[in-house]
# Entry
Amino acid sequence: MDLERYTLVPSVAIELPAVPASVTAARHRVREFAARQGAGAGTLTAIELAVTEAVGNAVRHAYADEPGAVQVMLDVEQDELELVVMDDGQGFTTRTVTGLGLGLVVMREVCDAFEVRDRPLGGVEVWMRFALAG
# Structure
């Protein structure tokens, strides 16, 4: 196999327990990766805000009474950083939740592309893209 013919996509996968301290840990690790990929100061701020909201939502809402995990996956393709935050929790429910409910709005506003969906086997996936150039 001629490895010189293939371009490796920069990527990282992080799995953390769904506890409050993981929000800060995820934010720092995502910022470090994005900075290494050339994200500017404004983009880094947007990425940090988005990952804080997404991981924070998983920590607060994904798991009712049992422990769980939150996964953060990042990759870079065509000068865009793709950020996916996932959990295996209860997904969107009709139960009452605390908070103002602005996290999803904030995430949508700070990224270039945004999608949130229930995962087929349970949990929620938040998908975002950020342009690294510009």
Observations:
- The chain has one domain: 11-131.
